[in-house]
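Archive transcription. Copying these from loose printouts into the bound notebook so they stop getting lost. Printout 1 of 2:
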Amino acid sequence: MTPKQLIYTYLKSLGFTDAGAAATIGNWQVESGLRIDAYNPGENAHGLAQWEGGRWTNLQAYASTRKLNPISWPAELGYFQQEIANDYKGTYAAMRTATDPKQAAAYFDQNFEGSSGAARTQRENNAQAIYDEIQAGKLDNAPVSTLPAFTSITDIKIPIIPGIPGGPSIPIPGTGSGSVVGGIIGPIVQPIKDIATLFKDLTWIFNVNHFIRACLYVLGAILVAVGLGLTVFGAGKDRPA
């Protein structure tokens, strides 16, 4: 899967129209060449969208709280989703209703990227070319199992790609931190969610946290089985003849 296909698939999962997805990708082609490790030392700008200043600081904080490398697909796409849904709601709405890729690209550049506008025509042309690829079926949604593993994207309540180990972990009412009910339900719900996740995609084994948790579940099951066995057989031996 190419970066273009990956980003397109992700944006579609957020509800972007084809024109909105093309506009976003077309802008990021100018910004970073669709490279998560792109860096502009002159502006100290980083990543796909060339985040800088406070926005880059916020992305780093987002990644840190989730134990992610800020220069990674999960961190950058996850933060983009959080940022556009909360801080750029107008752009988020526009990309979800856009029908003209060039107009959408100009809107995204002006309102989300905030560039000087010098490369506006290139952004628009990129968007149109990508839109044409989409209409020709060259960027069809790929299976989510081919996307990079996401880890603990737990505080985003808008749709994100399903079937990824560790995410999306949509908060269940009454099970959040600080909830009395959560203290009771949480320990029951979490193992069920984790076990379901394990069987969705075997890439979980490369996540240390998931692997350790799975081992603990297996060990716990063995200990319970042994305990029950000892209880049953021990009770039988203690009975009077």
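Printout 2 of 2:
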Amino acid sequence: MIGTPAATYSLTLPGNCAEAGLDAAADPMFDGVLSKLSALDLAGASLKATAGDPRSPPGQLGRRPLRAAVLHGWPDTRRTAVLITQGVLGGCDSTDGKPLATRPGLVPANEKCHAIGLGQGFGFVCGSEGGRTTVHEFEPPLGLRPVLSFREPRFVSAGGNGALAIRGGCSPT
């Protein structure tokens, strides 16, 4: 799908429909989509391209919260996902993208955040181009606790066992 134009896909679950705009060319985190989808119950599901409306007014979790949840969030149950977008930590329904709860102001609105496995749970790696990188641990019901911070950008990758791999040194600043 690399180099293909942006599209909105309709993921049809038995009795439900969910939409996620997936753009592999513009989103470097696209490779995480399949692992996120595998956490959902997809028995009897089908996927088809649809027309999507990018002009819809944005909510606290953006125009397409389900897209953001699939690409950058964490499936905390079979039917809900947690994400940070535009500086807002929130939960959304993974069947229709409807925001369930939000908490703004926990991270700067200009930072991009991506969910990762962290310890026994999950967290988020947040940063802005050329700026700080911060690793936050998720604290239920809707909180964050910073666990690492670097003055300069760092590549942070989840190891799959709760540990992190950090390019550029592990010493926090």
